[in-house]
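Hi F.,

I've been meaning to write this up properly since the lab meeting, where we talked about keeping a consistent format for the predictions we share between groups. The idea is simple: the sequence comes first, exactly as it goes in, then the structure tokens exactly as they come out, then a line or two of notes. No screenshots and no reformatting. I'm using this chain as the first example so we have something concrete to point to.
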Amino acid sequence: MEHKDELAPVADAPSDAKRKGNTDLPALKAELQHLDSSCKSVKVQLQPQSEKAIQSIADLSGSLNTLQETVTLLEDVSEDQVSPMLLKNTLERITGLEEPLKLMAIAVENTIVNPQIAILREDNKELSAAVKMLREDLEKISSSSEAQIMQVIVEPVRALQAQISQIGEQMQHKEELAPVADTPS
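Output, unedited:
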């Protein structure tokens, strides 16, 4: 489904419309980069016996990069390209992810007990809360209608949401260890 009209000029939009509101996007991008960096540091520590939730956290990088690229595109959207209300709603919802992303990055950094085996702490309330908060905020964005939010942002949000949900489920079910890869002895 194409959304050509999303970036079509609005007839009544003022010609000197600036990208107001887009000034919050650099902070959001910084939090996306922070979480991406945290996930990459987890990836470096992965071992065959690492928990599945830890492995899933390490795999978030691709979805985070896609969302970051989409946010970069939003920086260049102005009110003369799209409805001012649609742009405002999109920016408000997407920048609302800043705090949950920050908490998730901190939780990821503080969660690994032993870098040699990458096992979650027994008391991982901080990570559980961060996963829940981020999942709920991503759900609000992904369930928004076309009239509420620019659809260009929805697909990357849904991809990240699916991965965050998977991490949450893996933490709940506590599938302790991923299958150990066969290694020659």
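Notes:
The helical segments are 25-45, 52-58, 61-75, 84-95, 98-111, 125-142, 154-173.
The radius of gyration is 19 Å.

If this format works for you, I'll send the rest the same way.

G.
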